[in-house]
Backbone:
């Protein structure tokens, strides 16, 4: 990529041997890594796509840096200035919380102070427990469809989808987590829900009332089931006098392979609470995290 | 190739793979990237008096490069969220030349 770009834009000349070398290198690397250690048939399009886009950006800064360093006289001075430039901007961009979008159902924006007081944002923890590997690819669509069905909202169903009851939709498949909007923002910024779940007390996970219509903000992937599955039940006790180490203890081989699937097996959607929402517990019992609470 | 240059390039490659592994293996990829770039900025700030500033002609290119790097970091973070390092790193690095 970079070789083509420099030849096209800057007029750099590369020998035949150089081109052959680059082609060989790129072909070898792509052959090695496109599979990603899995079957050829299941190319991870998202990962490969992002990686290729990363390659484009690398190519872009390589060309720009090449020109800049030559114009600047000293490559050292140029790169020092570059890093000094990047650091503060990265720090500033990432320290600033992103503007929350959407509203609380009454017109006030999500991040608004009044909104924070009146209603807590919620996460719908939508478990999709089908274990058939063939349906993995369609899982996103199926999960969306399930939620649309559950809400009784036919407009949100994808075109051609049949409004049917999801196969496994027991009470245990739907959980609610009451969250402060600021926490929701952290979810949007990519804090893994796995870690968030660990930080939230169990009594905040409640049953939802599926009759009310919900607004879905965004899906969050919870990729590693083994972290969510309590392993204590199947764990043999260590003999007296031995140190118990869960992390390194050998597990059941078949069970481990099932747990270690590379695909998401749970979908999580962030939704707003409507004003008329009710849950089974009393509000006083819930102990919602307030805006001022330490997290 | 000069032996010193060869060793320096190998060392740079090891460092590079190292910080990529940190992003993938560490805590939140975004937070790790921010910390790494802040660290790089601090180290560079120390060397700034030694190297001096580059010629003014290079400044616009440097600014452009900073912007491209921001996009690059975003892309890298998303890549590592989506895929394994053994797959993402070779593709991103290997198809760029």
Residues:
């Amino acid at each position: 990529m970079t070789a083509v770009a420099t030849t096209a834009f800057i007029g750099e000349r590369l020998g035949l041997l150089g081109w052959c070398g680059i082609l060989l290198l790129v072909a070898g690397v792509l052959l090695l890594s496109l599979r990603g250690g899995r079957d050829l048939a299941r190319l991870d399009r998202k990962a490969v796509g992002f990686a290729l886009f990363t390659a484009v950006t690398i190519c872009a800064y390589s060309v720009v840096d090449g020109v800049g360093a030559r114009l600047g006289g000293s490559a050292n001075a140029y790169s020092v200035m570059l890093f000094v430039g990047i650091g503060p901007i990265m720090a500033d961009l990432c320290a600033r919380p992103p503007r929350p979008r959407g509203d609380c159902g009454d017109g006030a924006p999500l991040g608004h102070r009044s909104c924070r007081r009146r209603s807590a944002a919620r996460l719908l923890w939508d478990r999709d427990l089908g274990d058939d590997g063939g349906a993995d690819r369609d899982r996103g669509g199926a999960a969306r469809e399930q939620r649309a069905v559950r809400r009784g909202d036919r407009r949100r169903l994808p075109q051609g989808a049949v409004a049917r009851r999801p196969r496994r939709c027991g009470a245990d498949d739907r959980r609610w987590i009451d969250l402060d909007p600021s926490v929701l923002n952290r979810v949007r910024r990519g804090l893994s829900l796995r870690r968030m779940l660990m930080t939230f007390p169990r009594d905040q996970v409640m049953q939802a009332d599926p009759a009310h219509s919900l607004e879905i903000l965004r899906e969050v992937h919870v990729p590693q089931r083994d972290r969510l599955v309590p392993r204590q039940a199947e764990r043999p006790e260590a003999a007296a006098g031995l140190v118990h180490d869960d992390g390194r203890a050998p597990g059941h081989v078949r069970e481990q392979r099932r747990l270690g699937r590379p695909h998401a097996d749970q979908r999580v959607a962030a939704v707003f609470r409507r004003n008329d929402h009710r849950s089974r517990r009393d509000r006083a019992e819930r102990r919602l995290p307030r805006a001022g609470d330490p997290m | 190739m000069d032996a010193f240059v060869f060793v320096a390039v190998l060392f740079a490659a090891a460092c590079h793979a190292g910080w990529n592994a940190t992003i993938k293996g560490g805590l939140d990829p975004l937070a790790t990237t921010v910390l790494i770039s802040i660290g790089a900025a601090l180290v560079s700030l120390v060397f700034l008096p030694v190297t001096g500033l580059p010629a003014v002609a290079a400044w616009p290119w440097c600014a452009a490069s900073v912007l491209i790097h921001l996009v690059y970091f975003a892309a890298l973070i998303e890549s590592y969220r989506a895929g394994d390092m053994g797959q993402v790193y070779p593709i991103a690095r290997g198809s760029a030349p």
User: Anything to note?
Assistant: Residues 113-230+261-286 of chain A form one domain. Chain A touches chain B through 63 residues (CB under 8 Å). Residues 45-72 of chain A form the longest helix (28 residues).
